[in-house]
Amino acid sequence: MHGVRDLRGFPATSFDRVSSREKTIDRERDGTAKHPGPLTGTAPLSRGALRRFAVLSPAPLLIFCLASLLTFELWRSYQAAREEAERSVQNLTRLLSEQTARTLQSVDLTLQDIVTDLENNPALPDNDPTFRAQLTARLRELPYVRALFVIGADGFITHDTDYPSTPHVSLADRSYFLAHRDNPSLGVHVGHPLRSRSVGVWFISLSRRIEKSGGGFSGVAVAAVEPLYFEDFYRQILVGRGTIALLLNDGTLLARSPQDDVAMGKSFASAELFRSLRSGSQGYNWSNSPIDGIRRLGGFRSLDGFPVVVLATLNEADVMRAWRSHATVLIVGAAILLAVLLAFEWLSRRYRRREDIARKRLEEANRLETVGRFAGWIAHDIGNLTRIVRSAVSLLRPMISDKPEAGRLLDEIDLSLASGRELVTQLLSYSGNREMQPQKVDIGTLLTNALPHLRQAAGPSVEIKFERDGTKIVCLMDSVQFQAAIVNLVLNSRDAMPTGGLITIRLRIAGGGAESRWAQIDVHDDGQGMYQDVLAQAFDPFFTTKVPGQGNGIGLDQVLYFVNRSGGQIIVSSDKGLGTTMSLRFPVHDSGEGKKNMSVF
Known about the structure:
Blueprint: E1 2-8, H1 20-30, H2 47-55, H3 59-120, H4 129-140, E2 145-152, E3 157-160, H5 175-182, E4 189-190, E5 194-195, E6 202-211, E7 217-225, H6 227-235, E8 243-248, E9 253-257, H7 272-277, E10 282-288, E11 295-302, E12 308-315, H8 316-319, H9 321-337, H10 344-396, H11 404-427, E13 439-442, H12 443-458, E14 462-468, E15 473-477, H13 479-495, E16 501-510, E17 518-525, H14 532-537, H15 555-565, E18 569-575, E19 579-591, E20 599-600
């Protein structure tokens, strides 16, 4: 998995620039900083101001503050009540849409079975007793369906669960019949509410097309769904004085609770609520009902697989009743608080004492943090040095196998290194800053001089190759900390290649004109690489993927701190399994114009 992370440094005009946090710490030490109060987060009143305020009546200020707090709380709780109502109506529409979708899906599955049976038996006679018995059995499993029937290609019913009471009339003018006859690709069709020509009651049609064996229209299988079923089901859900409705996508009302026969089958596509809600597949809106004019919160959700929308509304007066009670309590409470104005002076003195204690604790914590961070970074540098010395000792041992005195000397060095490692372990629980000593340096010369140390740090199984052109690249930086940063990157690359490999260090000029020239040092290894989540945390202090005892997560944090303080940037590119490239960029201070040729060390 490929990842690139760009860590931009602070733009700094000098190396003495520090972060705003550090500046705050310095002012605190000088006693010039004004600390935020522990309760309000604002600068406290001076003692003289408090004494002057105590002479005057504190009531106006307290009343203003209390009124502001009361207004804010009323507004906050009002918004919270509206948000809670909006969540409730969305949850309600989700429940209703899932239940309604399951109901329609079960009807559609039955229709598909009927269509399959008829297409497999094209010679089945009209009103076949066996097939009618099957229709009746299926109808008993669908309590929300009033009747199941089949219409032939000529528009007359050929099979019906109400047979023989169904009148022999043509249904060729019904919208569902015409829709299937004229559109062979139409799947399940949900029709507008209609009155039955046999029993005179409202029903909603769900239908599917029946095909001839050789292709062509053979009829329609229809389920007459009872709107009263939905109305009864919706009535059982407690919504106070709200409403629940089922509509087609074009705004036609299919069912409503409370029941309203006058509105049945009418289109509400032009109503404000329906227009505002139909901007997506789900949503909510506060508006007046187009049926009874009551202001409600309306939420809607489209059914998956069907051109149907479930609409649920909650009466605004109902959903805001709890907030009105809360507002009453707040107002009464605020009136009571006005009676304690005489305690203001005591509270202000108590506040100042708490502020003094908090300031002292903050100053002490900042001092400890600074000392600890400084000690931790020094410990990390010492740890790197001891690792290099240990590598050198390991290389020397085979050379002096015939010299016991020299071997004992190396043993003593190992013991000393072990004590040093223990000291480093104790110090690495802290983190801190470094002082910078910037000077003009030739980056190429620094890297060339550091190569022997880098090769010792990398160990015998890792090869280091240095590439640069002939141009002299001068930057303003702390050369010691620069070399320490490169050592950190080499050690990380070495650890990413446990079986050995190649580390390539490349120096070049990046950027365009004189205003954007950078000295770029790329440290590339062909090691394990990093996943995106590891790359995102690579520069976090104390974050490491190494086993305990082999890494502490401070190295890259130290490199980032140095680059930032030097006005530079870090760009990391990594492919899991294909290696990592750490690119350090520093502003070019001055550069010579020399002959450019590729050099490999």
